[in-house]
Write a structure and sequence with these properties.
This protein is of the alpha/beta class and 105 residues long. It has helices spanning 25-39, 56-71, 83-92; strands at 5-8, 14-20, 43-54, 75-79, 99-100. The chain has a five-stranded mixed sheet. The radius of gyration is 12 Å and the shape is globular.
Length: 105
Amino acid sequence: MSLASLERGADGTLRLTGALDFANAPTLWRQGRAIFDAEGASHREIDLAAVERTDSAGVALLIDWTRQARAQGGNLRLRHVPQQMLAIVQASGVQAVFDIADDPA
C-alpha cells in the first residue's frame, strides 16, 4: 500500500500525493477536513500531479471536498488530473461536479 498525503506547498497550492484510493481515503478525508475547516470559505486549488493511482473512492473523496468548499462559499479547482481519474469521472457521469483545469497529468 502506498501512503498518501495532502499538504500545502510553498506557493499555497494544496498537493495530493500517493495513492488516492479506498485504502487511503479515510486518512486523506481527515487531512482535508482539518485544512478546510481551519481555513473557512476560500477558493482552493489541489494539484494532483503526484497521484500515483486512483479508484472510485478517490473520486468520491474529491466530490466531498468540492461540496464542502461550495457549502462554505468557496470553490475547489483540480489541476493535473491523472487520466485514470478522468476516466472514472467520465464513466461515473460526475464531470459537472468538478472544476477541472485543462492540464491533465
